[in-house]
Amino acid sequence: MPLVNAIASVEVPKASAGHTRTILARRLADIVCLPSSRITPVERHMSGDLLVGILAQSPDELRKQCARRIAPLIDVAPGLLRFLTRDEIDVARIILENSEAVSDVQLVETARTATLDHRLVIARRKDLSELVCEALLAPGEPDVAAHVLNNRTAQLSQDALDHAIELSREYPSLCALLLKRTELRPAQGFTLFWWAGSPERAHVLTRFAVGREIMQDAAADIFTMMAEDDWQDPLVRKAMQFIERRQRNRAAIDKSVYSSLENAIDTALEIGLDASLVEEISYLSGIKPVTGAQIISDHGGEPLAVLCKSTGLKRGYLVKLWHALKRPVGTKENPDPGMLNIIKCYDSLSSNKAQTVLRYWNWALSSEMSADFKDEIRAPGGMNISSDMSTPERTAALVYGQWGDS
User: Which of 129, 160, 206, 358 has the CB geometry, 3.0–4.6 Å to 156, for a possible disulfide?
Assistant: First the structure.
C-alpha cells in the first residue's frame, strides 16, 4: 500500500481531533487578539473568518472560551463578532453584556434576527442608541420593553415610544415605566391615560395638565379679529377653541331643552343616562359626542372629574353624574373608594388645567373620526398603527380600535 494511502487510512482518535481543534482555535484567537500595531486588518479578518469556521462546528465550551477572550477587545474582526453575538445565548451573553466592540449596526441586526433572550440581554446594555431601542421594541415583547424603559441610559426616539405605548394597551404595567421617561410627550401621555391605572392617571394629569395663560394672553386680540372675519378660517378657529377660556357651548345651551348643563345632569340622575342624554351633555360641555361617550363610559371615572372641573360644575354634580352612571357611592360614613378617587382628582385640578386636558382629548379623539376612519379602525383584526399617522389618527386608532368598547 502506498505510504500516502496508508496515512490517509489511519483513523485519528476523536479526542486527538478535538484537542487539535482546540489548540488551533486558541492560536487563531491569539492572532485575532493581537494589537493593531502587530497585525494588519486584512490578517485579522482572515484569521477571524477561519476561527468562525472552526467554532461553528465546535462544542459550546470552546465557543465560550473564545467569547471570553474576545469580549474585552476594542478591535475585533466583524465576522467573528457577528457570529458570537448570534450564537446560543450562553455564548452570546458574554459578548452582548461586556463587549464595547459591538456596533449599533450589529446590535440592531442581532435584535432583529436573534431570540427573545438575546433582546433581553441587549436591552440591559448601557447607552443604547435610538436605533437599537427601536429594533428592540419593534417585535412587541413586554419583557423586552420593560427592560428598555427601565434602562435609564437608553435613548428613546418618538417611534420607539410609540411602539411601547401601543404595547402598553395590552400590557398596562408598562404605563408606569413609560411615565418615568423624560422623552414622553403630552400627546403620548394623554393617550395612554385611557388604559392606565389610577396612580398613572394621576401622574399624567400632574405632569401634562398645564394652564394656557401664556397662550390666552398672546391671543387675546385674535378673538376680535376672528369675529370681524366671521370665524371663516377653520384652522384658526380650531386653535382658538383650544385657547379660549370659556368651556361650555353657549349656542348649545340656548338650543337645549334642559337650559343648562346642571339641569341635564339632574335629569340623568332622575331617569338615568341614555345615548341622547350623553350626546346632550357633550354638546353642552363644548365637546363632540364621541369624546363625551368615551369620558362617560370610562372604567375609572377620572375623565368625569376632568369634565366637571373644566365646565365649572360643582363637586356635587360630579357625585350626581357618578350616581347617574349607577356607580357605587357607598354611605356617608363609608363612601366608595372609587368615588373618593374621582373627587380627589377633581380637587387636584384647576379649571384652566382641566380645560386643557378636556380640549386636547376632544381634538385628539374626534378631529379625525370620520365614518370611514371609524369603520377602518374597527374592522376585524384592527388597523396597523404606522408612523405616518397624525396624532389624532394614532390616538383614535389606539383608543377606539380593536380594543375599543365605545
Answer: 160
Q: What is the pLDDT of residue 98?
A: 85
Residue ranges of the alpha helices (H) in 33-100?
41-55, 60-70, 78-85, 89-98
Q: Is-contact 70 81, C-beta < 8 A?
A: yes
337 burial (CB, 10 Å; 0-12 / 13-18 / 19+) is exposed
For 228-245, what is each residue's pLDDT tens digit?
Answer: 777 778 777 777 777 776
Alpha-carbon distance 395 to 389, whole Å? Answer: 9
For residue 182, give the DSSP letter. T
CB of 342 closer than 8 Å to CB of 354: no
In one-letter notation, the amino acid at residue 218 is: A
Grid coordinates belonging to 269: 340622575
Contact between 385 and 397 under an 8 Å Cβ cutoff? The reply is yes
**118-122, 324-328, 364-368: which has the highest mean pLDDT?**
118-122
Cα distances (Å, whole numbers) of residue 109 to 128, 147, 269: 14, 19, 59
**Does residue 84 contact residue 95 with C-beta atoms inside 8 Å?**
yes
Residue with the larger pLDDT of the pair 35 and 256:
256
pLDDT digits (tens, 9 = 90+) for 125-158: 999 999 999 999 999 999 999 999 999 999 999 9
Alpha helices in 180-221 (DSSP H): 186-192, 198-208, 213-218
- pLDDT higher than threshold 50 for residue 92: yes
Asked if residues 92 and 113 have their Cβ atoms less than 8 Å apart, the reply is: no
Rounded Cα gap, residues 121 and 164, in angstroms? 18
Cβ-contact 350, 371 below 8 angstroms: no
Provide the mean pLDDT of the chain: 84
C-alpha cell at 172: 398596562
The alpha helices in 151-287, defined as continuous H runs, are: 158-168, 174-178, 186-192, 198-208, 213-218, 222-228, 234-243, 250-255, 261-271, 275-284
Residue appearing with cell numbers 466592540: 101
Q: What is the pLDDT of residue 234?
A: 77
Write the pLDDT tens digit of every residue in 287-328. 999 999 999 999 899 999 999 999 999 999 999 999 999 998
Q: What is the largest CA-CA distance in the chain?
A: 115
Give which of 91, 70, 76 is closest to 39, Cα–Cα: 76
